[in-house]
Write a structure and sequence with these properties.
By secondary structure, this protein is α/β, with parallel strands linked by helices. It contains five helices and seven strands, in the order αβαββαβαβββα. The chain has one domain (about 1-145): 3-Layer(aba) Sandwich (Glutaredoxin), CATH 3.40.30.10. It is about 35% helix and about 20% strand. It has a five-stranded mixed beta sheet with strand order 2-4-3-6-7. A two-stranded antiparallel ribbon has the order 1-5.
């Protein structure tokens, strides 16, 4: 029951998301011994423009998680994404960090945020094993959170 309540809280936070109207400063911390500490997803962009196709892995489903350390729902869902990454051989999670170094708060003006038209996070793009875009936005969010169970 407790696990269901926790998952429900995380899903509520994820579906609420962060938008340009919100800006909360709090760093993300992953505890030692957590699955994410063993095999963390790659964290790319750091605010700079990036070609997602450069990070596709043939034969694997790749989840691109557009995120910021200043987004509470992003921090809430991160352990679940890290667990997926660590436990499923068919899935790869790649975190696309919106924030440029030294920018506090969600960096909505960063080159990568502008490149992909970000105005709400967490935001997902899921590419199938064939390298084709399978889902993005709300459809991708539902797909990804369905894998948490």
């Amino acid at each position: 029951m407790r696990a269901c309540l926790l998952l429900g809280s995380v899903l509520l936070a994820v579906f609420a998301g962060c938008s340009r109207a919100q800006d909360v400063a709090a760093p993300r911390v992953v505890a030692a011994g957590h699955p994410a500490a063993k095999a963390p997803p790659a964290r790319i962009a750091h605010g700079q423009a990036v070609n997602l196709r450069d990070y596709l892995v043939p034969g694997k489903t790749v989840i691109f998680d557009f995120t910021s350390e200043y987004c509470p729902p992003c921090r809430a869902i991160a352990p679940y994404l890290h667990k997926l990454h660590a436990s499923r051989e068919d899935l790869i999670v790649v975190e696309v960090d919106l924030n440029r170094p030294g920018v506090e708060g969600i960096d909505w003006e960063s080159p990568v945020a502008q490149q992909y038209g970000m105005n709400s996070i967490p935001h997902f793009k899921v590419f199938g094993p064939d390298g084709k875009l399978q889902a993005e936005g709300k459809e991708a969010r539902a797909l990804v959170t369905g894998w948490f169970e």
